[in-house]
Amino acid sequence: MQTSETAQQKRSPRKISWDVLRVVAVYSVVVQHITHQSPINHPELGPYPFVLPLQFGASTLLVVSAYFVCVTVRRGGTGRWLFNRLARLLPAYLVAVVVTYGVTRAVADSFGWPLPTPTDLVGNLLMIQAWSPQFHWIDASYWTLPIQVFAFTAAAILWPRGWSRGIRLPVLLWTLVVAPIVIRFAWRGDDAAQWIRSAFDGLALHRVALFGVGAAIWLWSRKRMSTVHMAVYVLAALAAQDAHAFFNDTPSTIAFGVVLLGVIAAAGGPDWDIPVLRGANPAIRWLAGISFGVYLTHQVLGFVLSRLLLDAGVDAWGRLVACVALAILLGWAMTRLVEQPAHRWLLANGPVIWRRARRALAATGRALRDLPQVPAQAQAESSGGVPVKPEPSDRRVNQPSTAAAGPETSAELDWVAMASSQVR
Q1: Can you give the residue ranges of every domain in the chain?
Q2: Residue 215 above 70 pLDDT?
């Protein structure tokens, strides 16, 4: 039986260019964190034979992610699309958080490192690390995950409501650049109220323009944005990102701009099907396929391995090679043992879980309606002023009612169709 994934591959053959960009982005993050970030977090781990201080890999991944949000959200129901995205993202993330937390707690005392707490674990599992100073990042590289979940959800809500048409999308994209800069320098200072800092950092407003860059490149590739407009927008986003860092890391911004030229070339030009890349395509495709698992497991677990090797007397080159190898091994294991099987299971069972949840909520609603009713006046008198007229529901207009099971929604039917295509 032909699955939706194989059908998609037939419609749009996988391009070498995008795999090359993913590999460059992810593995530059790995090397940068090992050689540059680890001695900052744990000074005893450095120095390494060389240092890659340029921070551009994670930003590139977000731009590429935003581009493919625009490519894929248009196909089929957005409910199915969002479910598919979260089913691929969240299980691996949750497992990575728990594993990293357990390993860090096991070695923290002997290494003299900060000990993560159960509160930190809960905050990271719920992706609210940046919303309160009471939470600490179990792995700081996880900052991209909450913003991706937020962006996917926003795309699923806005796209069916016509935000991809007319002037609204360009206005939204420019808002993603301008509004965070205004907030940063008008209200979000070091002495700002905690709720302002929590909202700004929790929503990652200093990075939302990256999704605007990906969407702008997609609009340009579809000939819905002029080359001049796209170029001005990308330059404005780069300037905004440098401003958010108070112009203290301009070399990283320049490096990011250079990589964005590659993203633009991949989106608007021919595939990079040249002899050198064609020969290495199997390895490039494999490394790109495990890139999310590599990203989730490389940093803190790499720091732990580096410390163990340092204590064992391994030199800097040996520790660098071992940490990169560990990132690839753990990334492969996370992909094969968690990400892919969890994704398949959720696609097959998601509609069933959804229907059962709706039935349970409907049964709860019926049970509440069947409770004996107290006369409104008597209730108001005995409770000291409870309003007789119930308050309006805070449920959004587009949120499905759970008062009755009813027929499946179109999104649910989409999930059923997708799930059945996955079952052999």
Answers
A1: 15-354
A2: yes
Closest to 67 (Cα-Cα) out of 213, 246, 259, 282: 213
Asked if 212 and 204 touch (Cβ cutoff 8 Å), the reply is no
- Phi-psi category of 270—alpha, beta or left, where left has phi over 0 and alpha has psi -120 to 50? beta
- CA 340/CA 343 separation, integer angstroms: 5
Cβ neighbors of 256 (< 8 A, separation 6 or more) are 55, 56, 59, 60, 238, 241
Q: Where would I find the H helices in 112-226?
A: 118-125, 144-158, 168-186, 194-202, 209-221
Query: How far apart, in whole angstroms, are the C-alpha atoms of residue 329 and residue 338?
Result: 14
Rounded Cα distance between 281 and 412, Å, is 37
Tokens of 135: 């939470």
pLDDT tens digits for range 115-145: 999 999 999 999 999 999 999 999 999 999 9
Phi, psi of 318, rounded to the nearest 5 degrees: -60, -40
Task: Indicate the pTM of the whole model.
Answer: 0.81
Give the DSSP letter of residue 160.
G
